[in-house]
Design goal:
CATH topology of the largest domain: Rossmann fold
CATH superfamily of the largest domain: HUPs
Strand order of the largest sheet: 11-9-8-12-13
Radius of gyration: 23 Å
Largest sheet: 5 strands, parallel
Oligomer: single chain
CATH class of the largest domain: Alpha Beta
Structural class: alpha/beta
Number of helices: 19
Strand content: 5-15%
Number of domains: 3
Distance between the termini: 56 Å
Length: about 500
């Protein structure tokens, strides 16, 4: 061991001292594998929150392999590439109730807080951490809650500032990302933040209490912290297809929200131009630091109103909604996408609001710490007094991600129509009933009513998700650089992936 050992050396030594119980002492984002030659056992583990990935496959008595990227397994001759219809159905219906599944039969994803052991041809999976085992957090005085929160939140932020390169942040102007940035720069640390808003003067449709452009909130942060450099990006020369083909070799799955990829890629590109490799975000803040607080009756109301596609069997059904928001299938698909983006750009998102210590603390708090006096998100509002501009600390409106999506969608229509006609039958058949629906959506393309709620639901979410899934399949197995490799196995029956 060196005087200042690297993370891998620390994990290696700790594992050989304590075995699997060492995982209880590890905090942070990790995925690692260790071969024990004495016991002839392979051990592999994934961090509690699932920020890092491990894929694996097993053919009992014949073959076992693992990789941190799915392409590492797909390159093997033993892998048949048979499509997983259940995963396709989950993805198209935004269910994602089986986070261990991938888009390929016989290829699996180790779940968050889980480890595997492979010995003598046998695979054993074990869970070492779960949201079901959160201890209540109780203090005698109200101020003690806020002090403890600030201490844990600060640790979550500071521990993610380690980097050989400058560290930046995504700053939306909302409570979560602004609080993350404030904790990072409160002691004078210089930092560059990146914000994505519509082109100046854009006057598209929006919903009540939603802003098209939160530039004024960004300006309040830069005024409050002179050590902040704020960069505002407008995505004026980007569309749904910008740079997409170049990222395909790195994508383990189709993009869940193609619209968000536009501004994420623009931020990554700008960060890379500034020699940054790490960007802080506050993606999970709505379920942790800025949780609204709910009564049990309100929780039941949420589940009653939720689309049925969210209510398929899942370990988090009818429990605290935050469990689903923190560990559910949708967040795991998003983390998978972020890892693919990291592989392509060389830039990674780090989310302090998804820190294990912070999650355990926030979920253990009494509801009264979040909602009181007809005001929600009270934990972070109170704790960040003096650390955030008042304009942001007390804000109750929201900013819309890629608010100019109606314009982007309309500008992409010609290319969408052209590409759909070229997507192979093999790729379309994967979609089941969605294939005919995509054709209908294109034939009945909206014009004047592009801003309606139904269009938002059907076109921005359902249509784009189905279209770009088919395009991802088509590129990988028909038209892309892998077309000289074995074709995907589309044998078998295909269920209807209806709404």
């Amino acid at each position: 061991m060196t005087r200042d050992p690297d993370d891998a050396s620390l994990v290696y030594k700790l594992f050989h001292q304590e075995g699997p119980t060492c995982l209880e002492k590890l905090v942070g984002d990790f995925a690692f594998a260790i071969w024990d030659p004495q016991k002839e056992t392979l051990f592999a583990a994934r961090d509690q929150m699932g920020q890092r990935l491990i894929y694996y496959t097993i053919q009992p008595g014949k073959f076992f392999a693992f990789s941190t990227v799915i392409s590492g397994l797909l390159a093997l001759e033993q892998i048949g590439r048979k499509i997983n219809n259940a995963k396709v159905n989950d993805f198209l219906n935004l269910s994602c109730s089986n986070p261990e599944q991938t888009f390929f039969d016989d290829l699996f994803r180790l779940e968050p807080g889980q480890y595997l052991e492979f010995k003598d041809g046998n695979l054993q999976l074990n869970s070492y951490w779960s949201l079901d085992n959160i201890n209540p957090v109780r203090f005698g005085k109200d101020e003690d809650y806020l002090e403890a929160f600030r201490e844990i939140f600060d640790k979550a932020v500071q521990s993610r500032l380690r980097s050989l390169y400058p560290v930046g942040a995504h700053l939306s102007g909302g409570l979560d990302s602004s609080s993350v940035v404030a904790m990072a720069v409160k002691n004078g640390r210089p930092m560059t933040t990146f914000s994505a808003f519509p082109p100046v003067g854009y006057q598209g449709p929006t919903r009540p209490n939603w802003n098209l452009d939160d530039t004024h909130y960004i300006e309040s942060m830069s005024s409050y912290y002179p050590n902040l450099e704020t960069v505002i990006l407008r995505s004026e020369n980007r569309n749904l297809f910008s740079g997409l083909d170049a990222t395909y070799p790195y994508l383990d799955a189709p993009c869940l929200n193609p619209c968000n990829r536009i501004w994420i890629d623009e931020i990554f590109e700008e960060a890379l131009n500034r020699d940054m490799r790490v960007l802080l975000i506050g993606m999970t803040g709505n379920a942790t630091i800025s949780w609204k607080g709910q009564t049990f009756k309100q929780r039941l109301g949420w589940w009653a109103r939720a689309p049925k596609r969210f209510l398929k069997p899942s370990r988090w059904d009818m429990k605290d909604p935050r469990h689903w928001m923190i560990m559910g299938g949708l967040i795991q698909e998003t983390l998978s996408f972020f890892q693919s983006e990291r592989a392509y750009w060389g830039v990674e998102f780090r989310d302090p609001t998804h820190d294990k210590r912070l999650v355990e603390f926030c979920l253990g708090l009494p509801n009264a710490q979040y909602a009181r006096q007809n005001t929600n998100r009270m934990l972070v509002r109170r704790a960040m007094r003096g650390l955030l501009p008042e304009l942001i600390r007390i804000r109750k409106d929201q900013g819309a991600q890629l608010a100019q999506w109606p314009q982007v969608l309309q500008e992409s229509y010609s290319q969408i129509k052209k590409e759909w006609s070229k997507i192979s039958i093999r790729s379309q058949v994967v979609l089941g009933d969605y294939s005919e629906q995509v054709t209908r959506w294109i034939e009945t393309w909206p014009q004047a009513k592009i801003h309606s709620h139904n269009v938002l639901q059907e076109y921005r979410r359902d249509f784009l998700r189905a279209f770009f899934m088919a395009r991802w399949m088509n590129w990988n197995w028909c038209d892309g650089t892998r077309r000289n490799k074995r074709s995907m196995d589309l044998s078998g029956d295909y269920p209807n992936h209806g709404h």
